């Protein structure tokens, strides 16, 4: 059958089989008429030939799957038809993601948005699968709350979440990130000028970089107190050496012929740095920035487990776990994940504009 040879064809076959199982074991009664109709519509849409699967087809499949998923939620129960329907919707979403990822990229602005469709669809599908599975299996809230319960808790606790966000991300993570990255770049320039520092400082830096945070965090709390400066100090220690190593490697990335050309022009060290070596080092520098952006938030949150005022993401997580308020814990995790993803995305966006000439950015 030609449909099996298309992108997502195997997922379509699995979806069709799961829908058949659901219908065989009392699907209409267990799932509701709307769910069954929309699932059958998705199966029929999957038969459309590959060359005719345009944006209208993708929109129709997405609408059918979204409607089926929403219609299934009130019927979620631990039964064979419901489980088969869950598998069918999951495989249908997998087929949709495969189709989105396989489509040729549209030029310029819309092409950048197109690249987000597949991961967004996959993420929404995971949230739906989490929601419907928790409901169907009746998982206790103290073990794993549903996304809807977490969202409701976020809406009820925006004031607390905002205070924790400012304390941990703005004061602790961002300040430590800025200090650690700035100091690492300055030290990298000094290391680049001195063979002694290159041979002596970098090995020590590699040793300090592997020190466990659970060992350094209590020490920083004793040195700098319980408020955000101690968390920023932990972040500095975490981001300094990854940024230093990446910057030093980037400054050494130029070819001998390029350096000889700068000497032929009688360029000074500063001129060669600004005109040749620093631009060539930008891919390495941004790699260090992206690594440091993830380490900064992790370091700030974990450091709050070892002493903090009565605010902060780490403090709230450790406190609410003890009170079995898992919805608040997941609300803090969601805010931290969103903040970290946006921070990483901003750095990646700046990288795309600065290093547009690099092969890693071509075709994006």
Topology as a string of helices (H) and strands (E): HHHHHHHHHHHHHHH
Beta fraction of the residues?
under 5%
The largest sheet is: none
What would you call the structural class? mainly alpha
Low-confidence parts, pLDDT < 50 over ≥5 residues?
Answer: none
Topology, number of strands: 0
CATH fold call of the largest domain: MetI-like fold
Measured distance between first and last alpha carbons:
35 Å
CATH superfamily of the largest domain: MetI-like
**CA-based gyration radius:** 26 Å
The count of helical stretches stands at 15
- CATH secondary-structure class of the largest domain: Mainly Alpha
What is the typical, i.e. mean, pLDDT? 82
Give the overall shape.
flat
As for the number of domains, it is 2
- Tell me which CATH architecture of the largest domain applies here: Orthogonal Bundle
* Residue share in helix: over 70%
Descriptive account of the structure:
The structure is a single chain. The longest helix has 36 residues, at 158-193. By secondary structure, the chain is mostly helical. α4 (55-72) packs antiparallel against α5 and α7 packs across α15. 35% of the residues are buried. It is 78% helix and 0% strand. The protein contains 15 helices and no strands. It folds into 2 domains: 2-139, no CATH class; 153-361, Orthogonal Bundle (MetI-like fold), CATH 1.10.3720.10.
């Amino acid at each position: 059958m030609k449909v099996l040879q298309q992108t997502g064809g195997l997922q379509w076959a699995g979806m069709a089989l799961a829908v058949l199982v659901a219908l065989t074991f009392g699907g209409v009664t267990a799932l509701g008429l709307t769910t069954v109709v929309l699932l059958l519509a998705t199966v029929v849409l999957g038969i459309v030939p590959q060359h005719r699967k345009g944006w209208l087809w993708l929109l129709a499949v997405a609408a059918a799957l979204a409607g089926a998923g929403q219609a299934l939620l009130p019927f979620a129960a631990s039964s064979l038809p419901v489980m088969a329907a869950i598998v069918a919707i999951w495989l249908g979403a997998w087929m949709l993601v495969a189709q989105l990822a396989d489509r040729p990229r549209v030029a310029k602005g819309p092409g950048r948005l197109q690249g987000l469709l597949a991961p967004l669809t996959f993420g929404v599908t995971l949230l739906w699968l989490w929601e419907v599975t928790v409901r169907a299996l009746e998982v206790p809230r103290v073990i794993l709350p549903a996304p809807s319960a977490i969202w409701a808790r976020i809406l009820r606790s925006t004031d607390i979440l905002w205070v924790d966000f400012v304390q941990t991300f703005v004061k602790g993570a961002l300040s430590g990130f800025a200090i650690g990255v700035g100091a690492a770049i300055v030290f990298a320039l000094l290391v680049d000028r001195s063979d002694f520092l290159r041979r002596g400082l970098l090995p020590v830096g590699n040793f300090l970089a592997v020190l466990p945070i659970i060992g350094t965090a209590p020490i920083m709390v004793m040195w700098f107190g319980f408020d955000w400066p101690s968390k920023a100090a932990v972040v500095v220690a975490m981001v300094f050496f990854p940024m230093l190593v990446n910057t030093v490697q980037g400054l050494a990335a130029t070819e001998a012929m390029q350096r000889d050309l700068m000497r032929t022009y009688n360029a000074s060290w500063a001129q060669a740095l600004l005109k040749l070596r620093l631009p060539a080092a930008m891919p390495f520098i941004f790699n260090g920035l992206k690594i440091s952006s993830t380490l900064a938030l992790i370091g700030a949150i974990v450091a709050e487990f070892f002493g903090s005022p009565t605010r902060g993401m780490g403090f709230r997580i450790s406190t609410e776990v003890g009170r079995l308020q898992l919805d608040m814990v997941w609300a803090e995790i969601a805010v931290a994940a969103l903040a970290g993803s946006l921070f990483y995305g901003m750095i990646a966006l700046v990288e795309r504009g600065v290093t547009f000439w690099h092969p890693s950015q071509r075709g994006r």
